[in-house]
Amino acid sequence: MGTGGGPASGPGWHVVVTGPRAGDQRREALDFLAVSLGLRPATFEVTHRCPHCGSEDHGQPELRHSRVARRRRGPDALAAGDLAAPLPAVSFSRAGGWLATAWLGAPDAAAGWRIGVDLEQAGSAAFAGPSELAGVGFSATEERLIGALEDHVRPGARGQLWCAKEALAKARGTGFIGDPADVAVTAPGSLELAVPDRPGARIVPDRDWPGGHAPDHLLGAVVLLPPAGHRPPAGPGAEGAPAASA
Fold first, then answer.
1. How far is CA 108 from CA 7, 74, 147, 222, 224, in A?
2. What strands, in cross-sheet order, belong to the sheet with 13-18?
3. Closest Cα partner for 60 from 121, 109, 15?
4. Which of these, 186, 165, 181, lies nearest to 93 by C-alpha position?
């Protein structure tokens, strides 16, 4: 299991990657979150609600206090203030038997920040050549820029861009509601990871997760999406990371 956190100047966030040997990967990750906040395991559970159809079987996850936690009495009981306080925002992604769980600190979530995470298998055939996702997953400009890279770098670049697109769609809380090729995750005219229409947003590939990257056969990305109207402070560190390197 790996963990990571954002820089002091940005929102507080973490990500854990739980291996297939865990009995209940989501429960293990949520318990890790609870303990990191000074709470007992089994304090949190997750619900879902689709913004389009209202279904609770899928859609954006939302953290809440579990029924077990609400029934606790004595020194382990949750105070009324705990039950009313904002909770972290969460996002999940599975690939190759692994689970990535990302969360955003409660104060930042209450301020309107959102988080999304995506994990993909690096060797997926979908990233091997332009014919697999061209015209659907990637724009013509993205494919042109990827095509200019060395052959051995291209699959990784496609995979990283796809992770960023998925994570951004999750952070927005919408999922893909149109053509993924139209989801912009690079600075114009480059493969530098960025969200052009949201100043201050960050796309963090797994190789830059402070706690360590995903397992070697996986690729991942976390997107930190600020509230509308957010203006980031000027200075270094606001730029995105390149989508691929030789």
1. 13, 30, 38, 15, 10
2. 13-18, 98-104, 89-95
3. 109
4. 165
* Alpha carbons 93 and 117: distance in angstroms, whole number: 6
pLDDT, tens digit, 9 for 90 and up, residues 5-21 = 544 457 999 999 998 87
pLDDT in tens, 59-70: 789 999 999 999
How do 114-121 and 98-104 pair as beta strands?
unpaired
Give the three-state DSSP class for 127. helix
DSSP symbol at 236:
T
Mean pLDDT within 100-128: 93
**How many angstroms separate the CA atoms of 169 and 118, rounded?**
10
pLDDT for res 80? 85
Joined tokens for residue 86? 């904002």
The CA–CA distances, whole Å, from 13 to 2, 79, 143 equal: 13, 25, 31
CA 2 – CA 210 distance, rounded (Å)? 9
What's the pTM? Answer: 0.87
- Residue 89 host element (H or E): strand 89-95
Q: Single out the residue of 173, 172, 159, 147 nearest to residue 207, CA to CA.
A: 159
